[in-house]
Amino acid sequence: MATDFENNTWVINYSFDNYYNKKFSLDDDSTLSKKDKTITWINTYGLDYMDEFRSMVISNELDDFLLRLFANQNLGNKVIELEEQLFIAVRILKTENHNLESEQMFFVVGKDFIWCIQEKWGDHFDWIRNRIFENKGIIRKKRADYLLYFILETIISNYKEKYEEIVLMENMLDRATQLEPTPEFMFEVEQNKAMIHQFKKASHGLRDIAVRLERVEVKGFHTKYFSEIREQVNGLTNDIDSDIQELESQINLFFSIQGHRLNEVMKTLTIFSVIFIPLTFMAGIYGMNFENIPELKWHYGYFILLGLMLVVTLFSIIIFKRKKWF
């Protein structure tokens, strides 16, 4: 009966002439290097198989330091050179859902094998598998370093596609000029900022990995492919930095527009207040309950007071016009 580790592990072995793809078996497939000019790609989903990991390390005479590395599920981004092998840890984004999550990935790479261990189920490597199965391109002519290049390139391409899909910057400016600064809108802006920074952090991690891979010196491992990875990541990070600057400028513009609208409202209210304050003052004087207010007995006192109010109003408006307050 297959163990849980075997149910969550697949093995692909290929050469230029042939390949096989099947569920992994500890009894039959535990040897990573076949010594027959074929490339072995083992993919494990899950990090909680320390007994099986130990068995794999021992049966392949790998450095037992790998077990300490496997036990750390928050290792981040590292490239460690071992004897004739390479260990790579990379923290990547899971982009299957709108809410981005991260997962830890480990790679143990030799000249003729890659053992890929992912924290969570699912990946975006099916197109690589199809190229192997259908013998497209030169992948079946190359060694494991080329397969690693394809895997890392796929992660970057997935970042680019998902970033363009869910981080939409084009309509932010129009919306900023039309929407009110409601809590819902500001929450959406903060979500966009957090999402962009998640992509930026993940991209920087991949760039660090690519830079370190260019410098490794492991027998049978070619580093020439990884300059292309670095260039692709640099392109993505440049786009992200540009979008961050654009978002910040649009947020500033948004608040500037809202501030201008508020100033216009306050100016209008102030103008009305200044006009009506003297009118209220005059009305207040003649609304007092003193007996000896001579103007109250004038025959035309009411009309005189209205005329005076009109003159004060027109005088205030003329002054505001000359000062170009409206």
Automatic annotation (TrEMBL):
Work out whether the entry's keyword set contains Membrane. Answer: yes
Q: Could you tell me which SUPFAM superfamilies the record lists for this protein?
A: CorA soluble domain-like (SSF143865), Magnesium transport protein CorA, transmembrane region (SSF144083)
Compartment list: Cell membrane
Instruction: Tell me where on the tree of life, at the top rank, the source sits.
Output: Bacteria
Where are the bilayer-spanning segments? 269-288, 300-320
Q: In the UniProt record, does the keyword Cell wall biogenesis/degradation occur?
A: no
Keyword annotations for this protein?
Answer: Cell membrane, Membrane, Transmembrane, Transmembrane helix, Transport
Protein topology in the membrane: Multi-pass membrane protein
Q: Which family does it belong to?
A: Belongs to the CorA metal ion transporter (MIT) (TC 1.A.35) family.
Under the heading PANTHER family, the entry gives: CORA FAMILY METAL ION TRANSPORTER (EUROFUNG) (PTHR46494:SF1)
What's the protein name? Magnesium and cobalt transport protein CorA
Provenance organism: Flagellimonas marina
